[in-house]
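User: Let's play a game. I give you a shape written as tokens, and you guess the letters that built it. Ready? Here's round one.
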């Protein structure tokens, strides 16, 4: 799919509605994870989410008679993405949100396009403009402020923030290194395979590290699980790929700028999470730097910076 060449931009109310729905759905998944891991061990919660989402996408792919990978190279690429794009980042997020707020987790992930910009010249040889490099430095300054001011003054709190940043680095590496390898695979099929791989690995992690831990299923945790599996995965990705037929990928990348704001607002209103003033300022710095980095690239390179990770 060449979304760049076929793009026409936001030309109808349906485009704006789908874009707004994506911002709301993916912005809400952070708080959903926060609520879910209060009642269910994190790796177990992640594994169930992946099983349900993979099943939904698999059934959808079969019903639509979509083509699955044929070569060993394609399967290998999907397996690597299942580890680096799905398992590592999401396992880190689910574990971390036991100890840090949903809004802080989302804000830390706002540095994702910045990390992609760092990986791009290392892995592909693409140069990054000086303006973008300067913004990267400023953006990571804001991320550092988030780390030291928004993270709880506890060892586990700081380890949780580090885990989230490791997830960001892993997902950014996957976005850049595997971009060409998966171009021949249908996006719905690709996402389903990756989630199936993540389901196997997170289930293994749960059986290894969470043996004996009980799950306390409540109406809230069950509803959050369904939100993550059905709406945060199957529905949201379907909307995303539908938009890609008409909207350039770099335009959809701006969703990453809106998601942290939605997560922060919901965390404040629904979970009464406190947001220090410096954390708000750091958020604006990070998001502003991300915007500058994306706008500093040409259309083709901007697409390479628009890869995303959503919970």
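Assistant: Ready! My guess for every position:
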């Amino acid at each position: 799919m060449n979304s760049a060449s076929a793009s026409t931009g936001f030309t109808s109310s349906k485009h704006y509605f789908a874009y707004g729905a994506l911002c709301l759905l993916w912005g809400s998944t952070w708080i959903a994870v926060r609520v879910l891991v209060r009642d269910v061990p994190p790796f177990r919660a992640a594994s169930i989410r992946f099983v349900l989402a993979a099943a939904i996408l698999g059934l959808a792919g079969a019903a639509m008679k979509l083509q699955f990978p044929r070569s060993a190279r394609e399967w290998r690429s999907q397996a690597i993405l299942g580890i680096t794009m799905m398992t590592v980042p999401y396992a880190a997020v689910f574990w971390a949100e036991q100890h840090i707020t949903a809004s802080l987790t989302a804000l830390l992930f706002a540095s994702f396009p910045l990390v992609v910009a760092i990986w791009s010249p290392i892995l592909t040889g693409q140069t990054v403009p000086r303006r973008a490099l300067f913004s990267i430095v400023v953006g990571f300054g804001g991320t550092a402020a988030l780390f030291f001011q928004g993270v709880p003054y506890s060892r586990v709190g700081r380890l949780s923030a580090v885990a989230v940043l490791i997830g960001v680095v892993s997902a950014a590496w996957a976005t850049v290194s595997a971009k060409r390898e998966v171009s021949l695979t249908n996006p719905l099929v690709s996402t389903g395979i990756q989630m199936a791989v993540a389901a196997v690995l997170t289930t293994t992690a749960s059986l290894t590290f969470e043996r004996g831990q009980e799950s306390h299923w409540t109406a809230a945790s069950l509803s959050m699980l369904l939100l993550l599996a059905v709406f945060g995965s199957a529905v949201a990705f379907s909307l995303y790929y539908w938009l890609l037929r008409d909207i350039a990928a770099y335009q959809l990348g701006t969703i990453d700028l809106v998601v942290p704001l939605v997560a922060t607002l919901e965390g404040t209103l629904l979970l009464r999470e406190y947001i220090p003033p410096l954390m708000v300022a750091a958020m604006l710095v990070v998001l502003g730097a991300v915007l500058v980095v994306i706008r500093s690239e040409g259309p083709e390179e901007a697409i390479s910076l628009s890869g995303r990770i959503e919970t």
